[in-house]
Amino acid sequence: MQFRVFFLNLLLSIMLLSCSLMPNEMKTAQKIMDSNPDSALHILQHMHPNLSLPDADRALYGILLFQALDKNEKPLQPDSAINFSVNYYQNTNDKPHLALAYYYKARLYKLGQHFDQATILYLRLLDIVHENNNLELLGKIYSDLGDICVLQGDFKNALTKHQISYNYFNEIGDIISANNKLLDIGKAYRLIKDYKSARSFFNKLLLLSHDSIIHGSVYQELGINFYNIKDHDSAEYFLRKSLNYPYKGTNYSIRNYVLADLYFDLNKFDSATAYALNSLKYSGNFVTRRECYRILVNSRYSLGDLNHMAMYMTKYQDYTDSVRRVENQTKTSVLEDLHQSSGAVSKTKQFMLILAVLIIIITVLSLSIVFTLRNRNRKKQLKLEKTEEKLTEKQLFLKDSLIQKLNENRLIHAHDFKKANLQERELISKEIFNKTLHLDNWEVFKKLMDKTFNSLVTELETLSPDMNHKEIGWCCLFLLDIPTNEIIILLNCQQRSLYKMKQRITQKLRLTTTTEMEQLLIHLSEDK
Q: With contact defined as beta carbons under 8 Å apart, do 59 and 88 qualify?
């Protein structure tokens, strides 16, 4: 009996001792967070806090854990840890700690591409932080808001946010963060197409910083800047140079992607493919990945590798859907306007919120009733419509790719075309179209048009066996929206004989008017 009492007392002492040590471990992690963030993360991840820990310590643990994860560029998880911190500090009205909890919850939303939810939290956070005048945190908030504005395409607003962030970092003497903001300011100038100002910031940063990561990012941005102004040689030089420097985040993926795009423009399709695939091996955002798959689709199409093209096309569509989801989110500028006006209309807003909730409830109930009454045929019809929509998008992509390739070939010959006389221009036009559509090789042309327009050539040959190649060629050029003056050159005919050809095609298809004939061609070219 005495042994049992002794054992229970010993066990209780050990439990109490471990509980008392946990806050000390948190203090150690907090103390070394800036100097050794990896060690701080190791300490925190091995604590395994449970319900026996006081709520105040659990709340602080959530902030410290997310801070350590963020500094080590690790995924911010579990969200339950930071949610507990937010709820606790909201209830205790501890604004300094609430600000930190809000910040890491907003970062969680941002990294998860929920930019509207992140922005709302950042705006709430600004109200708290401005009161406490925490300049470092203000710099971080405006930096993240600038990043969100870039991804939403609001480049002028992004420039403003990054400039504000730079001012805060510069005021507290955080040179590394300030230099990173100078880089972002240069990027913003590039995005609003002020390439001269962008290059000025990049060159200034090369002189200010001796950090190899910064230098790699600057060479990367100089390469992109030159690429945007079509200086391909300089772009290639700086982009390839940037590959030799260390990087953070998604930068290495971006360097490879832009090089891939550059080589595609130069018709070096194998190199474009290699760099696009290499970009996908590294951490990248959804926009970069979508553009890599665009390059892969177009490169494989140009090389005649239709099997890989179809595979990459599916990936391209997936990332396009991600971009659309981001584009559908409420823009930062709109949320800022709403936030600024919320104080004056708080009561009305509360009433409208209640009314909106009631409307949503009523709407949900109504929709539930409506959908319950619908039969299964409607569901099948919706699935069919979605399938048709995807097929149509793929077909439009093939048509757009052909038109894009025509335009690219036009640009290649633009200088010669401008200097040529009328006869020489006709020869150049024929060369451009032959290179793109293979008009001089019927079998290749037929295969290409069948692929693009739902087996249109095969269908026309079946409907009207006496239609000749020139007449079928006109049908395909019409569906590609080629201007009449170019069709006349390509088919070696006159305006009047082209009109008669359309009449003959109408008769061979057993139709009454050319309008009916054109509508039939459009219908035949669409995916069924």
A: yes
pTM for this entry? 0.57
pLDDT, average across residues 492-496: 86
Pull the structure tokens for residue 216.
Answer: 């790699």
* Nearest-10 crossing angle of helices 332-342, 135-151: 130
- d(Cα 245, Cα 267) in Å, to the nearest integer? 27
Nearest to 255 by CA among 288, 213, 207, 296: 288
**Least trusted range by pLDDT, from 171-180, 274-283, 446-455:** 446-455
Region 314-339 average pLDDT: 75
Structure tokens at 143: 């930096």
Which residue's structure tokens are 């945190």? 137
- Closest listed residue to residue 388, CA positions, set 521, 524, 525, 528: 528
Q: How far apart are CA 345 and CA 172, in angstroms?
A: 36
- pLDDT per position as a tens digit, 418-446: 888 878 888 888 888 888 888 888 898 88
Sequence-ordered list of residues with C-beta below 8 angstroms from that of 394, at least 6 positions apart, any chain: 313, 317, 527
**Alpha carbon 245 to chain centroid distance?**
25
- pLDDT per position as a tens digit, 65-87: 998 998 888 888 888 889 999 99
Q: Which of 185, 189, 191, 182 is nearest to 215 (CA)?
A: 182
Q: What gap in Å lies between CA 7 and CA 14, rounded to an integer?
A: 11
8 Å CB contact between 98 and 137: no
What whole-number distance in Å separates Cα of residue 438 and Cα of residue 443?
9
User: 350: buried, middle or exposed (CB in 10 Å: 19+, 13-18, 0-12)?
Assistant: exposed
Count H helices, E strands: the chain? 27, 0
Q: What is the mean pLDDT of the chain?
A: 83
How many of the other CB atoms lie within 10 Å of CB of 373?
A: 8
How far does CA 452 lie from the centroid of its chain? 27
How confident is the model at residue 6, as a pLDDT? 46
CA 90 from chain centre, in angstroms, equals 34
Residue for token digits 């956070």?
125
CA distance 159 to 147: 10
Q: pLDDT at position 379, please?
A: 59
Is it the case that residue 174 has pLDDT exceeding 50? yes
Residue 272 contacts residue 292 (beta carbons within 8 Å): no
Instruction: Please write down the HEC assignment for all residues of 52-97.
Output: CCCHHHHHHHHHHHHHHHHHCCCCCCCHHHHHHHHHHHHHHCCHHH
Q: Is the confidence at residue 354, as pLDDT, over 60?
A: yes
Q: Rounded mean pLDDT of 21-31? A: 78
Q: How far is CA 365 from the centre of its chain?
A: 35
79-83, 178-182, 219-223, 389-393: which range is least confident on average?
389-393
Count CA atoms closer than 13 A to 52's CA, side-chain side.
Answer: 11
The CA distance from 47 to 319, in Å, is: 38
CA–CA distance from 163 to each of 140, 190, 202, 251, 441 (Å)? 12, 14, 15, 21, 58
- Alpha-carbon span 199 to 183, nearest angstrom: 10
